[in-house]
Every structure is written in C-alpha cells, then in structure tokens.
UniProtKB/TrEMBL annotation, chain A:
GO biological process: transmembrane transport
UniProt keyword list: Cell membrane, Membrane, Transmembrane, Transmembrane helix, Transport
UniProt family annotation: Belongs to the binding-protein-dependent transport system permease family.
Membrane topology: Multi-pass membrane protein
Protein name in UniProt: ABC transporter permease
UniProtKB/TrEMBL annotation, chain B:
InterPro entries the record matches: BP-dependent_transpt_permease (IPR050366), MetI-like (IPR000515), MetI-like_sf (IPR035906), OppC_N (IPR025966)
Record protein name field: ABC transporter permease
Record's bilayer topology term: Multi-pass membrane protein
Keyword line: Cell membrane, Membrane, Transmembrane, Transmembrane helix, Transport
UniProt organism field: Aquicoccus porphyridii
Localisation: Cell membrane
ABC transmembrane type-1 domain segment(s): 111-310
Family: Belongs to the binding-protein-dependent transport system permease family.
Matches recorded under PROSITE patterns: ABC_TM1
Classification via PANTHER family: ABC TRANSPORTER, OLIGOPEPTIDE TRANSPORT SYSTEM PERMEASE PROTEIN APPC
Domain of life: Bacteria
Any one Gene Ontology BP term: transmembrane transport
UniProtKB/TrEMBL annotation, chain C:
InterPro entries recorded: Peptide/Ni-bd, SBP_5, SBP_5_dom
Residue stretches making up the Solute-binding protein family domain: 73-470
Signal sequence, start to end: 1-22
Protein's UniProt name: Peptide ABC transporter substrate-binding protein
Recorded superkingdom: Bacteria
Origin species: Aquicoccus porphyridii
Keywords: Signal
Subcellular location: Periplasm
A GO molecular-function annotation: peptide transmembrane transporter activity
Family per record: Belongs to the bacterial solute-binding protein 5 family.
Presence of keyword Signal: yes
Biological processes, Gene Ontology terms: peptide transport
Family matches, as PANTHER family: MONOACYL PHOSPHATIDYLINOSITOL TETRAMANNOSIDE-BINDING PROTEIN LPQW-RELATED (PTHR30290:SF65), PERIPLASMIC BINDING COMPONENT OF ABC TRANSPORTER (PTHR30290)
GO cellular component: ATP-binding cassette (ABC) transporter complex; outer membrane-bounded periplasmic space
Length: 354, 324, 566
C-alpha cells in the first residue's frame, strides 16, 4: 500500500501539469474578454490598450510558462517566507527572504506573483482571505450533513420501510430535488423577513472573540449551512441506505449473528464497514467541492467564499484567477481520490493495487 | 471403468406429486414488485406524468408561449375558496404568470422538455459512468488512465466548458436539427459529459471490492469470460448504488437545465421547462406561492417516484430479498 | 406631570441635538450594498461602475454632477465657464482654481501638482488607463501656482469638462502613485486597494470582490462632515437580496442598481424599512437593426460586414414596421415600472439635447401590416410573410437578464402578429459584452438580425456618443471586430454633421444639431429603435437622510452629506 501511495503521488505531478495545461487551453478557447464588464462608454481603442497592459497580447505558450513559473516557483517562495516570518508554527525558524516583491519602489529584478486581472493583486492573497468563510459555511455544512446523513442512512436501512425510513426518504428526496436557489430565498423570507431572527447578508469582516460574537457567527451561518447540509444529507444518506441494504442480507451477517455477536456489533462494525465503499467515494468527491464552494448558496447569502470568487472571476474572464483556483481544485481532487483509494484498501483488505 | 451414471434420479429424491410449471424469473420479480406499494404508486405517477406531458396539449390546447397581458397574474382557481376577491378564471385553472402565460399549458410543455432532458441526460450519465467505472475497476491496466481522466474532467471549470461547447457545436447542431432539437442535444450532451464522474468512481470502488469476492473467483475458475463476469456477476451487484445515482442524477439534470438557461446556454428564453418556471417564480414566491409550488412539486414528485420505483425494482431483483 | 413633560422635553432636545449641531462621526455606521463587488479602488485601472463608485467615497474630482446633471464644484472653487473667464474664448484652454487649504487624508497639502500628475498617470502610453478618453485632445497641463491648473487643448473643445469632472476622473495623490506610472501601475496593489484621497471617507480594510470598510476622513474639508463614523460597502449576492436587505430587513441603508421587476420592488417596499427611488439619466434600452447580412452561409470574414447588405432589414419599411408593432408603454410597465419611461430617442436627456420625437409611442399593428404589404411581403398560410421565396424570419439576440427575456417574449409576440417569424437567443453577458473576436456571440460581431441592449453616455455631452455612428467605425474583421457603429450605419450626411458638431461651441446650435442627428438614427431611418429610457433604481433606507440620487455621477457622490434621521 505504501509503495502504491508513493507511486500515485509521484504520478500525480505529471497528471496535474497535464490538467493545468488542459484547463489553460480550455480557458483560451472559451470566448470571453476581461473587458466585458467595462462599460460600453469606454471606447474600443482604450479597451485594447487595457488588454495590452494586462499582457494579453503575448503568445499562448509564453503566458502558460509565466503562470507555471509564478505558481510553482514564486508562490512557494512566498509561502516559505510567510511560514518562517509570520506563522506561529514555524516562526522560530530563521527568517527567509526568498521572494522579492515587485512594487513601486523596487529597483532591479523582482518576482511577479500570479496577479488577478480584476484586482491587480496576488490571487493567492485573495484565496487565503476567502478561506475562513468558505470553511465556516461550506465546510461546516458538509460536516453537519455527513454527521446527520450517516445515522439516518444506517437506521433507515436497518428498519427498512418503517415510518422513519419512509419519512426520511420523503424528506431527503424532496430536499434534494428542490434547488438551493429556491430553499435559500425561502429561508430568508421566513427567518429574516418574517421572523427577523437571523441576518441574511453574511458579514465576512466579523471577528469571533467572545461569546456574543460567537453567537452572532452562529446566527449568520445557520441559514446557508442549513441549505447546503440539506443537499449533502439527502445525497449521502441515500447512498448509505442503499449500501447497507445490500449488505444486511449477506451471508456473513447471518454468520455473525449466529456466532452470538450483539446486534450493535453486527450492524455497526461488520455491515457498516462493508457498506462504506460507495459512501467513502461520494464523501471524498465532495471534499474538493467544499473548496470549490457553493456558488448559488454563496450568492444568495452574500457569503463571498471561494465559489463566489470563482464565478465572478469567470464572468470577468479573469484568466489567472480562474486558472489558479481551478488548478488548486484539481490538486484537491487528485489528492482526495487517492485518499479514497487508500481507504478502500483499509476497509476491504481484499482490494489490492500492487 | 466406473459405473454409468444413473439416468433416472433416485426415487427418494423425486417429488411425490406433480410439480407446478416452472415460474419464470421475471414472474417472480413482478410478484415481488407488486407488493411494493411505493413502487407501484411511483410507477403509476410516472406513467401518468409521462402521458400527461406527451398528450396533455391535445386536451389542454392553450399555447404555452402565448402572452396575454390583460390576464397576467391570474391566481389558481382554488384560491377563490378562501379569497373571493382573487383574480381567478376557469380559462386558466392554475393561473397565469407575470406575462399572462397559462400555467397549466406551461407545466405540460415544460414537463415535456424537463422529462426529456432529465431522462436522456441521466441515461447518458449512467451509461458513461458505468462503462468507465467497470472498465477501470475490472481491468487493472485501464484503472490508472481512466481514473486520471476522471480527475481531469472533475477539475474542468464548467462555465468555460459550456461556452466552448456552445461556440463549437451550436451552429452545426442548429443547422442539422433546428434550434430547439439542436439545443436539446447540446444540453443533454453537456450534462451527460460533465456529470458521469461520480457514478464512475462509485462503480469502480464497488467493482474493486467485488472482483476479489469468492463468487467472482468461482466464476473465473469455471471459465466464465470477463464479459460474462461483468454482466452476470458484477453489474447486478452494483445496481443499488447505481439506482441511487440515477435517481439523484435525474433531479440534478432537471435543475441543471434551468441553471444552463440562466447562463445563456439553455433553450430559448420563451421555451418553458420546470426548472425555468421555478427559477422565474422565486422572486415572487411571497405573493404567488403557487408558481413555485407547481414546478417544485412536479420535480419533487417525479424524482420521488423514480426513487420509489428504483427501490421496488432493486428489492424485486435481489433474490435474497425476494419472497420474504 | 410637569416634571415628566420637562424630562421628556429634555430628552427630545437631547435626541435632536446631533442633527441640529452635527458633528463628524456622530451618527455611527452606514451600510451600502452593491450586488456586484468592487475589485479595485482605482477608476483608472478598471472602468467598472462598481469600482468607480466604491472609490468615489475616497478620491474626488474637481467637480461633480448633482442630481439634476448640473456641475457642482468639489475641489475647485467654481466651475470655469466662458462668462467667468475660466474657459478661453477660443475654447482651447480651461483654467481651474482649486479651493484653498485642502489636505489629503494623510494631512499633506493638496496642490495643482497632484492634478497634473493624475493626467500624466492616465495618459501614460503603457498604463492601460481605462479613462484615457477623458483626456482626449489634451495638449498640455500647466500649473502656474499651487492652486491653479490650466488645461490646453489641441483643438477648440466645445465641451471642456471631460477631464477631472465626475466620478470617472478623480484626483489621485502624486506622492502615493509617483512610482506607479505606466507598466508599474499594475503592481501598485497597496495604492490601488487603499488610495489616499480628499473625500469624506478613508479605506480601513479592503477585501477585493467582497467588502470595504471605510472610516471618516479626519482631515475632510468640512469639519462637521461626514456624519457617519464608519461605512461598510458590502459586495456580492444578487439584486433581490440587496433590495431585501434595505427594504425588508433593514440590514443595510442603500442598495445599488435594483434591476428588479416593478411588482417585486413594490412588494419589497411593503417591508416598510425603505423605498425604491429611481432617477433617470441617458441609459436607453434599444433594439439595434443589423444593416448587414449575418447569414451563416456567408464565408467567415464577410458575414455581417458592409460587403453584404441585409436582405430584409435594408428596406426601411420593414424596420419601420418592426418599430410600429412594439407597444413601448406596456414594455415599460412590465419591465421597469416607475424606473422607466418609453422613449423614441437615442439621446433622451439632458433636456436641451432631447428631441421631441414621440411618434413611436403608439403601437400600430395595422399600420405595420400595411407597410409590410406595401413593401411586397405577402402573408403566407402559416402566418409568416414571404417575398421572392424568402421568409420574413429574424434572429433576435440579447444578453441573459430576466427583464430582457420578458421583453423578447413580448416583442416576439407582436412581431408574429405582423407576420414576422422570430427566433430568440440569449447570450451570457460576459460573452455578449466582451470583445473576444473569436466568439460568434458578441454584440459587436452581431451575428443576428436584431439585438437588444442598453447604452448611455458619461456626463452631459452626447458628442462622442453620436460620433460613434460614423461610416467606417463599424466592427469588422480588419479591426478585430472592435468598433462602435454596431448597426453598420453609414450616411455621408451624418458624418458631415459629426464634424460640424465637433466645431460648434454655442450650446443652442449644438443642441439643435444633436437633435437632428438623433432623429436621423431613430425616426428617419429606424436604424436604432429605442424602447425605454431606463432609470437607475436605488433602495434607500427610511432612516437615511441627505441622500441625493444622481445618475450623472457616482451613486455615492454626496456621501459627506448623509445623516441618520432617527
């Protein structure tokens, strides 16, 4: 398993480079223009000058090479500098100064980071800025969704066609087939407009430092988390239930019961473990999606996480931003699919990769 | 020399009475299926909806695209029960929208588009997903390339992909199939191509585990071909997660279609679909809740029916459960 | 009893005190919500409205336009005119006198050098400045002393107020941007995110594409202003959410650009926390007729170019009939309500430039049918007219937007009544308004027969706007499909009038000429079929006082005067 993991990790480098190239070419091929959001009152000659100032005139391979250098050579330097200078974890290490920022006062050679066309600022800084709300809202919703879904799935399967199962099926299927662009405004109308309980414009500048601010944070998170968790719960509980049902009638379950094992051990250990493979697949596929954000929910509640960043970048045709975010997304996908593959091996030792 | 095989079974093993004619497997399946009330209801509803959207416009002949501004914002007829002042009309039993389009006619026409897109995209998704999943799970040599390809497709940003697809394919499709059919093919293709990955990963994961099981080993030992193992032994065993994927996929496809038209990739704007009706009605959901309820219910009930139908089918097809 | 009323009186007096003798920062916090989030606080690097308006709280021009489109001095002592000697008789120079004692928010003095620097910054050839056209025709800028700026023009400039007037060309600080000239402009992240200005607020925290926190500028020229100590400009979400946050839940005080259907807005107002206010400018939603043939059968490079006139729309009778079939009153009522007025003009405002053209306001289906009959289009059995075997079938495209799709549906219906078959298409706005020459779906390429969008002009002078329709200024393959004459309109008489307008300084004469040009494009040729003069709708909280709605300048132009009424 270890050699397999190492081999996969090594192989993932060319895979990711290839993915980056494909994404880059796709973005080049897609129609779009970073000047789309500049008002029509700005004349075309001026727009042409603005495009040139962004470096759009360069040949495609030069643009891609520049991005590769910035992403894989300069950004890591910035990260190491940050680790040794500012972070709590590695702050004790001697300060490094690998990266020389370009700026108004800098003379001589300097390193240009991946710069967004919309903001003319480093893409990574904005991504880091978006992480807190993305993790708070989208990540939390995912965790909550899984925590609710797995017990529901197990119990629904164990008591198939009981009232609990029927109700669970009904609610999760309705929940899944109603899109967030409807559930979001519905919650807003009920809880913000009619009852006035929660704010619905998410305040990204809010700092949690005491009990009251924590309560406020919970209030503003509640609605988007509910909307997102509904979708996650519906999806994962269905897979959990189906997979449990498949296993509950297997011979080994009868054997385990015949051995005199308690029902809890039979269900929670034997059956559950064997039912986890599709569930692990679905969960692992969902984790990168947390990072990708939840575009519609983020827009409805103005959460402005990474999903909103990506969609605005796409609409503004901000190529460096889109490429960087999608590439990071790709890294997570490759990584979590690897993790899922390793988990298969742990859940079912008969699965061998070597 | 061994004794020749006895060509008649021992008397002791013979049944004392005449056996019933052999029941076919499908008869058993149907018997089991009949007992599943949810599945019957679901199936019944699906048949009803399918017939209604296919032939409904022959009974209810109002043109769903016809605007009638003087009759805009008509409430459904039942509103009159509690609100005698409400603007209702028997001519529009389910009311009209903000441009005076008849809601009943829209639901019928919209259902046709949504069901067609939903089913076609779901089937395409399942076909691609299952094929790739089975190949990757079963043939070790294909696993690496196919799964890396899956990773690649998962990472592609969907919006640029859509825009590229539109740029490349809209004109030829429109020329060959007409604006609406061309768009239908494009939408189904786009949804199918961008949503098979989950099914593929699930199928592959299950196959990886299943192919090491004893019954597969036994089948292999008995000389069954790979093709036989896949179709007779592996696929039936991944049916239940596939059913879930398919059900969820149907819901996703119906909703995604409306998101596509929001992005300007969908059907022409005056072409009703359930997803579009729902999206258009959301800003006015406080004043006209029926306009969200109607398409919302249709989507939910359809998905729910498919889900129950899938449950019933799975139970009926599983020999271990059958006959319980 | 007496005691109680005395106490009450004292309490009332106390409560009224802040409004009576206003003090900087006494009214606490104000929230503004933009459903498009600002990306950068520099109008020179981004032409986007959201960015221009977010920066207008910090950096100011010499003068602004008030809610009626009148010029108001801000950093200048007065608006220079020929009467007060500020503008040279021959229209070749303008002299601005700055207010005395102005300081930047960091305490350093504001001088004429900053004004000159701003022009140099934008006019740098490598800077990619979005507002370059504001400085067009500027020959040189002189600063005889710290408080005087003289702009010399290459040619007589009948409208000398484009530079340093309005939200698009505010003054930036020389000390801060000195090293950000040309190509370096892209690298000055700190300056672009936190410009030092003379305006009522300073940037405290800027999260690009998300939120901006401002605090009152301690060095603002009026010691009593601004009344608010802090201002949050939240970006993102959608127009519905923004409207709700102001009018239904009261979480914010101002919501920008609520492009919502009138009945939705009316419902929101029932929330009782705020009102939807509309103000009108020059934004006109119109249908553009393609004068060239966009047929996909033509080879690429000749499609939609002047080489092939449009087979159907080249006939003015068809264009006129299409216009006559439209009921603009109804469109306005459905799509914009209070926030729109039906119009037949390309230049609907300012008043002196607006033609009295109202012919198109009455829908005339019969007339349109008669006109098409006369043009030789005969009604077929399927309800579609034909002529010489050609069907009267049009492709009608626009950007994706709920109101535009409603308009498409309505207009399609009316056109069907006159025997015109219409295919609708909507294109994602980022592609439609983008200038990607590789895309078939941009509005410049115009691979459709008719298209609908809105356009306006900055400030109060329509000259550059009308000059767009010059022969040869059309988008074409040789110019990478860049060009402003979207319809491919070409008339030498019109070109002559463009030149005449550029040489006329006297306002009355300019207005008469502009009206004539407007009529030529609209009612004389039906090249452009205006539909609705669109107002800008803003959600304003009931507790916010002093807000003045100007469409001629930034929405936030008078933020210094805002106060809390409760």
């Amino acid at each position: 398993m270890l050699t397999y993991t190492i081999r996969r990790l090594v192989l993932s480098v060319p895979t990711l480079l290839f993915i980056a190239l494909i994404i880059f070419l796709l973005l080049q091929l897609a129609p779009g223009d970073p000047m789309a959001q500049v008002p029509l009152t700005v004349p075309p000659e001026v727009k042409q000058k603005m495009r040139e100032a962004l470096g759009l005139g360069q040949p495609i391979h030069v643009q891609f090479w520049k991005w590769l250098v910035q992403m894989f050579w300069i950004e890591p330097q910035v990260f190491i500098d940050w680790l040794t200078n500012k972070s709590a974890l590695f702050g004790w290490l001697p300060d490094t100064n690998l990266y020389t920022a370009c700026g108004p006062t800098v003379e001589g050679p300097c390193d240009l980071r991946v710069i967004s066309w919309q903001t003319r600022s480093p893409v990574m800084d904005i991504v880091v800025q978006r992480l807190p709300q993305t993790l708070w809202v989208v990540g939390m919703a995912y965790v909550v969704g899984i925590l609710i879904a797995i017990p529901i799935g197990i119990y629904s399967a164990y008591r198939q066609y009981s009232v609990f199962d029927q109700a669970g099926t009904f609610i999760t299927m309705i929940g899944f087939s109603i899109p967030p662009f409807f559930t979001g405004p519905l919650l807003i109308v009920i809880f913000s407009v009619q009852l006035g309980w929660f704010p619905f414009i998410y305040d990204t500048t809010h700092v949690v430092d005491d009990w009251d601010s924590f309560v406020f944070q919970l209030q503003q998170m509640l609605m988007p988390v509910m909307v997102l968790a509904l979708q996650t719960t519906a999806q994962i509980s269905r897979f959990m239930r189906a997979s449990m049902l498949d296993n509950l009638n297997q011979d080994y379950v009868r054997t385990a019961r015949a051995k005199g094992l308690s029902e809890a051990i039979v269900v929670m250990i034997h059956v559950l473990r064997n039912s986890m493979i599709p569930v692990v697949t679905v969960i692992a596929l969902g984790v990168p999606a947390i990072f990708g954000g939840a575009i519609i929910t983020e827009v409805v509640f103005s959460v402005n996480g990474i999903g909103q960043l990506l969609i605005t970048a796409l609409f503004a045709n901000d190529l460096p931003m889109v490429l960087t975010i999608t590439f990071m997304f790709a890294v997570l996908i490759v990584l979590f699919n690897l993790i899922a593959d390793i988990l298969y091996g742990l859940l079912d030792p008969r699965i061998r990769y070597d | 020399m061994t004794d020749p095989m006895p060509n008649t079974p021992l008397n002791a093993l013979q049944d004392p009475e005449i056996t019933q004619p052999a029941r076919s497997q499908w008869r058993d399946v149907w018997d089991q299926f009949k007992h599943h009330k949810g599945a019957l209801l679901g199936g019944g509803f699906l048949i009803f909806v399918t017939l209604a959207v296919l032939f409904g416009d022959m009974i209810w002949q109002i043109d769903p695209k016809k605007l009638d501004i003087r009759n805009k914002d008509v409430r459904p007829i039942y509103t009159a029960i509690w609100n005698s002042d409400a603007k209702v009309s028997w001519g529009n039993p389910l009311g009209t929208d903000n441009l005076g389009r008849d809601q009943l006619a829209q639901v019928i026409a919209g259902g046709r588009a949504s069901m067609a897109v939903g089913w076609a995209a779901m089937i395409l998704t399942m076909l691609i997903g299952t094929t790739i999943g089975v190949l990757a799970g079963f043939f070790k040599r294909l696993d690496g390339p196919l799964m890396r390809f899956t990773d690649l497709v998962l990472s592609l940003p969907i919006l640029p992909l859509l825009l590229v697809a539109v740029t490349l394919f809209r004109q030829p499709l429109r020329a060959n199939f007409g604006p609406e059919m061309g768009m239908f093919i494009l939408i189904v293709g786009v949804i199918g191509v961008t949503s098979w990955m989950q099914a593929a990963r699930i199928v592959r994961g299950d196959i990886l585990a299943l192919k090491e099981r004893e019954f597969v080993l036994a089948a292999r030992a008995a000389g069954t071909t790979s093709r036989g193992i896949i179709f007779r032994h592996l696929l039936p065993n991944v049916l239940s997660p596939l059913m879930v994927s398919a059900t969820l996929g149907l819901a996703t496809a119906i909703i995604t279609e409306s998101a596509l038209s929001f992005l300007g990739v969908g059907f022409p704007s005056d072409f009703p679909t359930w997803g579009k009706m729902l999206a258009d009605a959301v800003p006015r959901m406080q004043e006209y809740p029926e306009r969200v309820m109607l398409p919302g219910l249709m989507i939910s009930l359809t998905v729910l029916s498919v889900n129950y139908l899938g449950d019933g089918l799975r139970d009926a097809l599983d020999p271990r459960i059958r006959g319980r | 009893m007496k005691m109680k009323s005395t106490l009450l009186g004292a309490a009332v007096a106390f409560a009224l005190a802040p409004a009576a003798m206003a003090e900087r920062g006494s009214d606490g916090h104000v929230g503004v919500i933009y459903w498009q989030a600002p990306s950068i606080l520099s109008p020179y690097l981004s032409g986007g409205t959201k960015d221009i308006e977010a920066s207008s709280l910090v950096i100011e021009p010499l003068g602004r336009f008030d809610e009626n489109g009148n010029m108001v001095p801000f950093l200048a002592r007065e608006i220079p005119t020929i009467e007060n000697g500020g503008v040279a008789e021959d229209l070749t120079s303008i002299t601005w006198k700055l207010k005395e004692g102005l300081v930047w928010s960091d305490g350093t003095p504001f001088t004429s050098a900053d004004v000159k620097f701003t022009a140099d910054y934008c006019m740098h050839p490598e800077g990619g400045c979005a507002q370059l056209s504001k400085f067009e025709g500027v020959e040189s800028i002189e600063t005889p002393d710290d408080l005087t700026v003289v702009i010399n023009f290459k040619r007589p400039q009948p409208y000398p107020y484009s530079a340093f007037m309005g939200a698009q060309s505010p003054i930036i600080q020389k000390a801060q941007y000195e090293n950000c000239m040309g190509a370096k402009a892209q690298e000055c992240t700190d300056a672009n995110f936190g410009p030092i200005g003379t305006g009522p607020f300073m940037v405290e925290e800027f999260k690009p594409n998300d939120v901006i926190q401002y605090v009152a500028n301690p060095n603002y020229r009026d010691p009593a202003k601004p009344a608010f100590a802090t201002l949050t400009l939240k970006g993102g979400g959608d127009a519905t959410g923004a409207g709700r946050a102001v009018m239904e839940t009261g979480e914010y005080d101002i919501a920008w650009n609520l492009q919502l259907a009138p009945d939705v807005l009316a419902k929101m107002e029932e929330g009782g926390m705020g009102k939807a206010e509309s103000a009108f400018g020059t934004l006109v939603e119109r249908i553009e007729m393609n004068m060239t043939d966009p047929s996909p059968d033509l080879p690429e490079g000749e499609r939609a170019t002047v080489a092939h006139p449009h087979p159907i729309l080249s006939d003015i009778r068809v264009r006129k009939a299409l216009s006559m079939a439209i009921d603009r009153e109804l469109l306005t009522e459905i799509g914009y309500g209070q926030a729109g007025t039906p119009t037949c003009n390309l230049v609907p405002a300012p008043e002196i430039y607006a033609s009295d053209n109202t012919d198109c306001l009455v829908q005339d289906i019969d007339g349109a049918n008669a006109l098409l009959d006369e043009a030789g289009w005969t009604m077929g059995s399927d309800g579609v007219r034909t002529k010489d075997g050609m069907r009267l079938s049009l492709l009608y495209q626009t950007s994706t937007n709920a109101v535009r799709q409603d308009f498409q549906a309505l207009i399609k219906q009316w056109w069907e009544e006159i025997g015109v078959e219409t295919e609708l298409r909507n294109v994602n706005a980022s592609v439609f308004f983008g200038g990607d020459p590789g895309s078939p779906d941009t509005f410049q390429k115009f691979y459709a027969d008719v298209e609908m969008y809105a356009n306006n002009f900055d400030g109060a002078d329509p000259q550059p706007y009308l000059a767009q329709y010059r022969c040869g200024n059309e988008p074409k393959p040789s110019s990478q499909w860049a060009g402003e004459n979207i319809n491919r309109f070409c008339d030498p008489a019109y070109d002559a009038m463009i030149d005449e307008l550029a040489a006329t300084g006297e306002l009355e004469a300019r207005a008469a000429l502009a009206k004539k040009m407007n009529d030529m494009l609209t009612k004389d040729t039906y090249t452009i079929v205006p539909l609705v003069n669109r107002g800008r709708v803003t959600g304003v909280s009931n507790t916010l006082g002093g807000f003045k709605h100007s469409t001629w300048d930034s929405l936030l132009w008078n933020a210094a005067d805002w106060y809390r009424t409760e």
